[in-house]
Amino acid sequence: MSPLNLDESLLDDHLNSPRFIPLRFASRRRRFFIAAGSAFSILSFLLLAYISFSRPSLLVSQEVPPHTDDAPSWNRKSSLLGPPADRFRDNLRNDTKYMTSWISAGWTNDVMTYGNLIYLAMLTERVPIVGPFTPSHIGGDAGNILFSEVFDLDYLSKRIGISVLEWSEVKNISSTEIEDIGCWSVWEAVQTREKHPRKSDALRLQGLDISFTAGPASLQKIPGYEHDPHAHFWSIASLLYSPDRENNLVAPQPSEVHGAVLPPDEHLACFDYLYYVCAHTSFEYEHDISPAWRFVVKNFRWTNRLQGIADGYLRRTFKVPDHDPIPPYIAIHARRANDFIRYCNGQPKEDCFPSITTYQRRIEEMQTETRDRLGVVPQHVIMLSDEEDPAWWDSIRMVGWYTIDHVGEDTVNKYGSKWYPVLIDAVIQSSGIGLIGMESSTMSLLAGRRVQDWHNGVFKNVKWGRPNADDH
Predict the structure, then answer these.
(1) Angle at 296 (CA atoms; ends 96, 99), nearest 5 degrees
(2) Which domain of life is it from (predicted)?
(3) Which regions of 114-264 does DSSP assign to beta strands (E)?
(4) DSSP 109
(5) What phi and psi values does residue 85 have, to the nearest 5 degrees?
(6) What distance in Å separates the CA atoms of residue 139 and residue 201, rounded to the nearest whole number?
(7) DSSP H helical ranges for 30-73
(8) Could you tell me the pLDDT band of residue 138, with boundaries at 50, 70 and 90?
(9) How many degrees, rounded to 5, is the angle at CA 284 between CA 360 and CA 362?
(10) Residue 289 class from Cβ within 10 Å (0-12 exposed, 13-18 middle, 19+ buried)?
(11) Hey, where are the domains in the chain?
């Protein structure tokens, strides 16, 4: 549902190629040609050395290697003064600038929002601080889960070359301090329905009392257009630099607790909501050019613990011994719960959503592609869905496809959180050689991008919404 576009400034170091001046042939003696040839060889060698060693970042492959710490090592937490403090300001370095924002959507959209935050921080040379994930789609009783329980923060930081911090590393979770801070509201600038900053349950988690300043209407990609609330990365970034900062400082809104009236903080830049942000194209994650995916979210690797848990489920489901490799497989992600049913416009489920026959055709197409391109024909197919009808699940197993039994595995009690069925399914979706997803599902979208970029696999979405929608 949402994406971004490539800003070449991250890659362009303005590499100046040496200029070669044509040689004048002042003599026809063979000795001259030997000298000229030697000089050209030396210049060529120096040019190759310059390209290879002076600007290595231009030649690094965008393919993500296996999840190992092969990037240069440094202490991510050196961007802080020490362990979590009762007041966040007591833990920020004076020689470092920071950035934060908050989530306010479903889990996958929140992953994308944090990706946008981190990319914006990269553009503006700041250290991003992310919060936990909140249970917006799995019930409030699930509680929050730390970013670092899902994704490997050290690996991410090493791969992108900047420290990525969590709020729990900056400020004590147990702290009762309520701190005043000024932040920008992007949401007020990019949509016409609400005249206030974006609401979020995550705002209270860091003990902040925020005085928001509305961003200028010029932030919106198409100012005043109610159907597209996107802003461009650099439009938002401009608010952190002169003269755009000074030119757009309107009266701040009083904070809710202390009534503080503060301009946007310059040490810790903060924004209410960064989901609807792009470099060029709205909903940019849907496009290969998305810089937030290519330079940030592609490096959101599952923790080794979470990957290991999901691998255990796969081995038990496929009946593969512990020390044997998991066979290549195709995963299907089928959204069938109420959040998608409402787009069926009253049609019966079986007319609206893809049929088993539709999925079988897509599986055959995917097997042909993996055979031709990779020399592999995956025989294992696993269905992952939010469907609750036992009869539907029986029909899936009848055609020979595998399913994950979270009830039989007692997943929630085993890992102490309602997050784990969702997370395990997400890891399984991303770990196969192929993924068949649902059009318009951001969970399918990110899982498919992981399959493509992590495993050189195949990703296809099925169309839905009416009978035979996926005919092609």
Answers:
(1) 30
(2) Eukaryota
(3) 127-130, 165-166, 179-185, 208-214, 231-232
(4) H
(5) -105, 165
(6) 13
(7) 30-49
(8) confident
(9) 5
(10) middle
(11) 76-299, 308-462
Q: Is 3.30.1360 the CATH number for 76-299?
A: no
pLDDT at position 166 is 98
Task: Measure the CA–CA gap between 430 and 199, rounded to whole angstroms.
Answer: 31
Q: What is the pLDDT of residue 211?
A: 98
Tokens 């961007």 map to which residue? 79
- Cβ–Cβ < 8 Å for 412, 418: yes
Beta bridge partners of 382: 331, 402
Q: Is residue 140 very low, low, confident or very high in pLDDT (cuts 50, 70, 90)?
A: confident
Q: Are 56 and 231 in contact (CB under 8 A)?
A: no
Distance CA 421, CA 196 (A): 35
Percent of the chain with pLDDT over 90: 79
The structure's pTM equals 0.84
pLDDT of residue 297: 98
Which DSSP string do the residues of 142-157 spell out, in sequence order? G--B-HHHHB-HHHHH
Q: In sequence order, what are the residues at sequence separation of 6 or more whose Cβ sits closer than 8 angstroms to the Cβ of residue 372? A: none
**pLDDT single digits (tens) 286-306:** 999 999 999 999 999 999 999
76-299 and 308-462: identical CATH topology: yes
Run of H or E including 406? helix 406-409
Measured distance CA(439)–CA(464) in Å, rounded: 7
Average pLDDT of the segment spanning 213-222:
97
Residue 393 structure tokens: 């699940």
Quote the CA–CA distance of 446 and 453 in Å, as a whole number: 10
- Per-residue pLDDT tens digits for 324-371: 999 999 999 999 998 899 999 999 999 999 999 999 999 999 999 999
Q: What is the dihedral of CA 213, 216, 217, 222, to 10 degrees?
A: -120
Strand partners, 381: 330
Give the type of residue at 288. Answer: D
Q: Give the integer Cα–Cα distance in Å for 212 and 118.
A: 21
